[in-house]
Amino acid sequence: MRSVRARAALGATVVVAVALVGAGLAVLLVLRANLTDQAGLQAEVVAREVAGQLALDVPYDRLEMREEEDHPVQVTDEDGRVVAVSKDLEAISGTGTDQVTPAPSPAAGSSTGSGDDGRDDDGRGDDDGDDNGGHSIPGRGEVDSGEPDFSNGTATVDGDTADYRFASVRATTSAGVTLTVHAGAPLAAEQEAVGTVRGAMLIGLPVLLLVVAGVTWLVTRRALRPVEGIRREMAAITASEDLSRRVPEPGSRDEIARLARTTNETLTALEASVDRQRRFVADASHELRSPIASLRTQLEVGAAHPELLDVPGAVADTVRLQALAADLLLLARLDVGERPGRTTLDLGALVHEEVSQRTGDRIPVAVSVPDSGVFEVAGSRGQLARVIGNLLDNAERHAERAVAVSLRAQRGGVVVAVTDDGAGVPPDERERIFERFVRLDDARTRDEGGAGLGLAIARDVAARHGGRLTVDGAPEGGARFELWLPSAG
Prior knowledge:
Layout: H1 4-55, E1 73-76, E2 82-85, E3 89-93, H2 106-112, E4 142-143, E5 149-157, E6 160-172, E7 178-186, H3 188-240, H4 255-304, H5 311-335, E8 343-346, H6 347-356, E9 365-368, E10 376-379, H7 381-398, E11 403-410, E12 413-420, H8 446-449, H9 454-464, E13 468-473, E14 479-486
Parallel strand pairs: 9-11
Antiparallel strand pairs: 1-2, 1-7, 3-5, 4-6, 5-6, 6-7, 8-10, 11-12, 12-14, 13-14
């Protein structure tokens, strides 16, 4: 099942099915318990009525047992013998004995056989104090006021067999004979109600699940329609290799709209990256062509006319070609995400070392490094030396009379500032100069102006070290480049 719509519909259907089945079972159990309790309450009422009559020594054959209300009654003595049953009771189960034929008890007969007028041995009638609330009165029996025993069983009354809820209540006659009254209430209403609810659930559940599956399918299909549009457009972009195309963005503000916007942003970044790569390849080819062509010309002239060979020029072209190749290699390593080393080094000592090696500069470099203070940073010594060297080369190329480099601590880091007194950098060009192969002075020769990679390399290296490289105007009127690097601590 590879379709998201199908999986969503199936998942929603399964979840709803489990929830409905669980809720349905709970409803059935609660309904059955409530109806069973109601039947048990009815049975208890009938059992207590009969037990009350027995406590008043009403003879067995004169007990009122609600035969017309379909409440079967069975009365047993302490030995389990049946002493009285309701009218038309033909069979019974669930009460402890299945006998339905009364067997007179001698003890009970003596206590209830004193006469047919309902009077006791003292000559008093049944009327005074027949409601004793479960407590014994002299000359009267008592009814157990505790919780009755309940059980389920069956009974056959006048040829009809049905399920009943039986309540068992004990009563004691005035003669001390303990009798147990088993009275039943029909469970037909409970069974009919439970069956009706169960049938409705069995019929409604599949229909409801079909509705849930269909609605989920339609809603998911509608929700995923923009995704299909995005997929088709991405497939077309891949086939055409036209990165200028964009996927459609739905007007909603949901996750799919954000996905479309993110996809378009990714395409924009990818297009810009590819364009930069193409320009880089074109510029690199152009920059490499000049020294290679010049070197080849000089070698061909030298081969034909050795006396005309310009050895210093050939060496200069070779050095320039070697430097350009090194720059391109370093940029390639930075582009693939090469991480610098984590060696701790003193940036002040590195600045002094770089300046001391520049013996052929046309303008001496003034160094200002405080004697007190720690200027330790973590990174690649070679790459950081390359950054400082590139900044000094740029300052030497544009300065008129002065080049200075200074160090200071600032906000958890170290700042290296390189200034010159040249023409400076126009504000609208201060970000462009960090692009690759960019030279603001097109009239400057390549030998003097370089290939336009030094500042691009310096910024990339600074970023790889967690720092930044910015340019601003210098107080002397020239440019001020500031390299911030985080402290080693």
